[in-house]
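Sequence decides. Our protein:
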Amino acid sequence: MRSRAKLAVLAVVALLLSGCAGAGALGAGGRTLVVAIVSNPQMEDAIALSDQFERDNPGIRLKFVQLPENQARAKITASTATEGGEFDVVMISNYETPQWAANGWLENLQPYIDASEGYDPDDFIPSIRESLSHEGSMYAVPFYGESSFLAYRKDLFEKAGLTMPERPTWQQIAEFAARLDDKEAGVAGICLRGKPGWGESLAPFSTVANTFGARWFDENWNAQLTSPEFRAAAQFYVDLVRQHGEVGASSAGFTECGTRYGQGEAAMWYDATVMAGTNEDPASSEVVGKSGYVAAPVVRTETSGWLYTWSLAMPKVAKDKDAAWRFMRWMTDKDFVRTVGTTFGWNRVPPGCRLSTYQIPEYQEAARAYAPATLAGIDSAHQRNTMLQPVPYPGIQFVGIPEFQDLGTRVSQQLSAAIAGQISVDEALQQSQEYAESVGAAYRETR
């Protein structure tokens, strides 16, 4: 089973290899660390502070390869799976970590963690720590963690005479979006991702599908993308975005929705809990203090939302592992949180990772509008709460198998085409079902 899974990843990687060479090389003396990192505001802060690491660690230089999410996934997967050696530290998630650890592609970090006095791995939120572990050892350390929730403009709700429930349903959200949609004023009722990518539109959509009672595969690996539950969820999502979502929704991802919401161009935004720091940052938002935050909307399940963490891992072939760990420890330590807070403001600290962050008085004050909802979302993000039917795979907003990078991206392209009005939802799902059936058949053969 493991060998088949490794071959599946390598098959996907073969499609991604172009452009992966030349990302960087170790400098003289093996002391230049090449770090592959996803481009978003939290990572930008780490890069801005990296001169402090270099100052405190003479002789170690950092070179960042910073890429948008979809491109970063492709490059990092290709390099790590083929032992390319371009990167000493890579930013990956709880999707990749257990699989890559099982494949032997990552360095076991537990010995480094255990030898690092004061690092305090028990301070990591348990569900986040467990999601980055394999056979009891951590193979990646979290930079930030997240679930998903709904942000809404309190001022617009009050003006419209609407009240947001603490635990809304998606039907209620659709009604609110219709009431608040104001095309003349340039304000969409809601912003939802429509950009293709298994880590883009598929993340929020999969949580919607889950709470409708849908699943990707049944217990026997039969594809379920044309089931009544999956179809109802897809039709709901597409209709909501097309009727009351943002302009250009089929190409809007987390970054685009963040910009629109922060500029006052959306009344609601359902996405990662990490969004709150950007929404409440005066440097990037025009709606500071105007938002409320509530749990991910539901339909048939007890709760909804996802569990995700961007983390740092060390490829097995990294050339200077001690130096790589020193950097990884610096970027994921308690002291880094305080450095970000005092340098850039407490709304910009990496959230959802360390329990101690939520005990810092300055952070408690700055994040009082969203910190409780963030922790509650992460705590409740389990399949038993967010799904109605049993599934044969790990993951909530993703299917935790190697083939999902390709499968999820293909399905997301169909969903995006439906959002753009190029095909119907039924056409999108029929094509998606065919993709999923080929994946499921391979797993049935190995049972």
Remarks:
- The first helix runs from residue 2 to 14.
- Confidence is low (pLDDT under 50) at residues 1-30.
- The beta strands are 32-38, 61-67, 89-93, 133-134, 137-138, 141-146, 148-153, 268-272, 291-295, 308-313.
